[in-house]
Design a protein that fits this description.
The protein is mostly helical and 137 residues long. The chain has one domain (2-133). The chain has six helices and no strands. Helix 2 (9-34) packs antiparallel against helix 6 and helix 5 runs antiparallel to helix 6 (112-133). The chain is globular. The termini are close together.
Amino acid sequence: MLDAYFGGAYMRTTQLFLGFQALALIGLGVAYFIRPHEMTNLSGMLLMAQAAITDVRAYYGGLQMGLGAFLLLACRQTDLIRAALILLVLIYSALALARIGGLWLDGGFEQTFNLIALLIELVSAALAMWLLRRLPS
């Protein structure tokens, strides 16, 4: 049923969205894996121990690359579209809520990095939810 529904513009829009998200996640993941110090410095984090560097490479690098790979797979296999959109809604919503909580707890609503990241997370969650709601049940 999804294959018939995905024949038109909706399929292209969804694939473009998932493809863009995949490339962004893979690109950031590769950057965190290759240049962990530079990437964490963008938000003001300092990596003071080898264990911290490895953790950033694994979590910020590996996790984002894995998520991006799943989204690319979903672009090719229409039966994964719903799962990919649900995943993006949950991940970006959780990130946005945690970031809002952090900004409130840390008194940092003037933090440009986190405000930009929050905007990206909210827009990404909203777009994924919009696309998800357009799927047939």
